[in-house]
Amino acid sequence: MEVDCNPVELPINTIYDSDPELRDMEGADVKDMRLEAEAVVNDVLFAVGNMFVSKNLPCAVDMAYINVEIKEGTKYCLELTDAGLRVVGFGFDQVDESCCSQYHETIYSLLDSLSPAYREAFGNALLRRLEALKRDGQS
């Protein structure tokens, strides 16, 4: 079942209300990939040039697309499913059906494989956080 990708326009439980099979599963561990994609974006936005959930590609309960521009300037379209994340296109909102990139379990792993600048930004953020924890522990 496809749903609109804009989470602001839809209440979170819309999938249960519109599909009788899913309504019986309310409370079960059903993922909404739109929400997962938003969480992915919010988690690493500090370490990339630009990143957002696609509003032009179809979004479903089991799949979402994320556009990312790494700090080096290269743009990618990522697919997020239960299998993980993978590159499916080399531009925003572009899906190349012949693209056979490998799945990554985490966004960190995927971006680490694509962007040395991401790796550096992530490492610097981690270092700053550890230094802050050390300072707080000495106070």
TrEMBL record:
GO MF terms here are: kinase regulator activity; protein kinase A binding
- Provide one Gene Ontology cellular component: cytoplasm
Q: Which InterPro entries match?
A: GSKIP, GSKIP_dom, GSKIP_dom_sf
Question: What Gene Ontology biological process does one annotation of this record name?
Answer: regulation of canonical Wnt signaling pathway
User: What Pfam family is a match, any one?
Assistant: GSKIP_dom
Domain (GSKIP): residue spans on this chain: 33-133
What family is it from?
Belongs to the GSKIP family.
**Stated name of the protein:** GSKIP domain-containing protein
